[in-house]
């Protein structure tokens, strides 16, 4: 794979596909609650600028709704707050185009000078970005490619998407991988090839269905799997425990049962919660209550792991040499149910060895805990992309960058 740092970029315009998909405040919709992904995109952009390139950044934000460009652009979200924050972090102006690859973007690209930065509007305003139709995506890719001389893929969090700006644009220009993508891939490769042992994987988060494929693959690689969060209740139910009103995916019980059997056969230790913090509803002001033992009474839902589980997980992590963690073990957004997430983060940060946190919500959660900067080897920017890599699937965006031009 070509490296962006090896491209000759002086006086050329470089289209950088970045991942700037940051969480926005839900009430105002304008303030960025965690700018980690913008910060992670800076090294590549700064390097290109310092070497005399004009940089056009392309990124998506959220999931714009509507059948056509005008409807999506009207509904938002616009990348305007991101342009503002990017300018602050770079310490130089960032011109926000009024469109993705239309008249405004063309004028900006044509008049741009060395060392200048522009940001295209939310690429998902273009329905073709995510289209299943190769020709539709190809037409958008051609308009994007026409804006620049070179393409740099640095949006790791979108690499698992066969989208126009990720998959169809690189073949149209000389292309290379940015620093973020190279760093993410290097770490994920360490997790999948000869990881130092014991290798402990901690999985939490909301839906078991999102993560079953990766659990299957990790159950073959890891020595221990610690399962918590909303997904744990489907496992507990599959083992015959009572789970009250906890998050439950009945249609996944069959597959979960298979994972449990496979793990047992492979000699992988699968650890589930042994106690819980429950409440009668999912709400910030719900009254937390500890339930000893794995069973949850009717009328209550499990919202965090209990104190015995926190200790158990810490013991299972204590001798680890490699840790991958995806998915918060509790509803960390509500302080009453955040203790489990904090305990797991602290236990992992005490591990000496390779420790990787992946997942959008997980990364945001640990950044909010204000642990020391070196608490983890890496806080990955990729959620789905990291998981698909660990599942052993080829990432379309990476494959497109690997092909030579
Ligand atoms: P990531 O983005 O890190 O991959 P997910 O998106 O899978 O993580 O899950 C994050 C969400 O899981 C959080 O919003 C958190 O509130 C939720 N969650 C964690 N534990 C529970 C639980 N016991 N019940 C319901 N939701 C939970
Ligand atoms: Mg998430």
Molecular structure report:
This protein has a 6-stranded parallel beta sheet with strand order 3-4-2-1-5-6, sandwiched between helices. Strands 9-8-7-13-14-15 form a 6-stranded parallel beta sheet, sandwiched between helices. It starts with 12 loop residues before the first strand and ends with a helix. Helix content is 38%, strand content 15%. It contains 15 helices and 15 strands. It is an alpha/beta fold and 405 residues long. The structure holds adenosine-5'-diphosphate and magnesium ion. Magnesium ion (MG) binds next to helix 13.
Distance between the termini: 11 Å
Query: How many alpha or pi helices?
Result: 15
Could you give a short account of the major beta sheet? 6 strands, parallel
Q: Share of helix among residues?
A: 25-40%
General shape:
elongated
Unique ligands:
adenosine-5'-diphosphate, magnesium ion
Structural class: alpha/beta
**Order of H and E elements:** EHEHHEHEHEHEHEHEHHEEEEHEHEHEHH
Q: Tell me the strand percentage band.
A: 15-25%
Q: What is the CA-atom radius of gyration, in angstroms?
A: 22 Å
Taking all residues together, what is the mean pLDDT? 95
Are there runs of 5+ residues with pLDDT below 50, and where? Answer: none
Count of beta strands: 15
In order across it, which strands form the biggest sheet? 3-4-2-1-5-6
Give a nutshell description of this structure.
By secondary structure, the chain is an alpha/beta fold.
Question: How are the SSEs ordered, and which strands pair?
Answer:
Layout: E1 13-17, H1 36-50, E2 54-58, H2 69-75, H3 80-90, E3 94-96, H4 103-111, E4 117-119, H5 134-145, E5 150-153, H6 164-168, E6 175-177, H7 179-192, E7 199-203, H8 208-221, E8 224-227, H9 232-238, H10 253-266, E9 269-271, E10 275-279, E11 289-292, E12 301-305, H11 307-318, E13 322-326, H12 339-349, E14 354-358, H13 360-368, E15 378-379, H14 384-391, H15 396-402
Parallel strand pairs: 1-2, 1-5, 2-4, 3-4, 5-6, 7-8, 7-13, 8-9, 13-14, 14-15
Antiparallel strand pairs: 10-11, 10-12
Bound molecules: adenosine-5'-diphosphate (ADP) and magnesium ion.
